[in-house]
Amino acid sequence: MMFWRMVIRALIRQRRKMLMIACTIALGVSLATAMLNVMFDVGDKINQELKTYGANIRVVPQAASLLDDMYGLDEGQNYYLREDELGNIKTIFWAFNIVDFAPYLASEVHLNDTRVRMVGTWFRHHMALPTGEELDTGMTNMKSWWDVQGRWLTDDDAGGALVGSLLAARNGIDVGDVITLSYDGRAESFTVNGIFDGGGDEDEYVYVPLAAAQALLDKGGLIDSIEVSALTTPDNELSRRAAQNPKSLSAKDLETWYCTAYVSSICYQIQEVISDALAKPVRQVAESEGSILNKTQLLMLLITVLSLAAAALGISNLVVASVMERSKEIGLLKALGAHDGPISRLVLTEIAVTAIIGGGIGYFAGLGFAAIIGRSVFDAAIAVKPLVIPLVAVLVCAVTLAGSIPSIRLLLSLKPAAVLHGR
Questions:
Q1: Which residues pair with 305 in a beta bridge?
Q2: CA torsion through residues 141, 143, 147, 150, sign
Q3: What are the beta bridge partners of residue 148?
Q4: What is the rounded distance in angstroms from the CA atom of residue 95 to the CA atom of residue 216?
Q5: Disulfide engineering: 190 pairs with which of 85, 161, 210, 261, CB 3.0-4.6 Å?
Q6: Could you tell me which residues come within 8 angstroms of residue 306 by beta carbon, excluding any fewer than 6 positions away?
């Protein structure tokens, strides 16, 4: 009882310094809490942002891919996938990680006397899934960075077309013009709803609704490729081994790989539900996603460490100053027979009580900072991670202890006679 009475009186008597210590701890903990919550939740946020810049998985007919690897032939030549199996993509284990997908059917056709590449696709397609859910998916979301003069097509625009900017400039095509595409004796007229600038080879293409392309090419219900945009986990040694040969994994490693959202495991699962398909990661996109995510998380971790280190230095200076001010009091306690252990416990308890108060305030302030970061950077809420609470508790203890060590060493070195005589 006497011990706690001394602690309370010491806290009241040194309330200004204890308030400074609490504020120092609160500042460090708030920044650490914000960074840890964002770091643990940032993966999906960054992936969502990157998904607006294209697909990271491409699905093609297995036989066509084999011919392309062996002989360099066009992947889509005379080999096709089934359109009616597209909904199966949303039935895989990682279905909720599939953000968007779009099928394609491409071929060379004639525009007047010029050979051009026509691509049939879904633009914003509403479909009922085998699970009973409904979904809107297609190329509109996956190519959101395209600069479109006019307007995007919808799947209801059976006679509409999007023309690439280079093709339109070379052939004098404007929005509202009617163009005629012909293939193998069949011809179809399309109204140009928009002219797009995608910044790549697609600026030479003509995009039309998938059903219109299938009718012109006489390929009803067929497609030659699928682009998939999926939220993925950065690759590691396990995922790279699995990508080469999943059968080489042990049962435990296979289960871990299959139940983790690696791009290779999602590709494998897509192949399981699409007949005769080969799903391949678009390495340039997939690798950059993992690299950006790792660097962002490393930056946040460094900020957390530096903030806590600064808090520890601040605590150290404040506690040392407090011990110096109380040197006569401590010297008197020692002269009356108090040992170093009880005196050290007294000082540490005072600091611990202050740290708990500062840490609690800092934690809730950190949640507010995390929400501000989420809204301002990702335009989305940052989820509160329960794992952060024990981490913050451990960090508060570590920072407080690290900051208290110099003061405890000073306390132990005090000599009662020298202190009481003012030396």
A1: none
A2: negative
A3: 196
A4: 33
A5: 161
A6: none
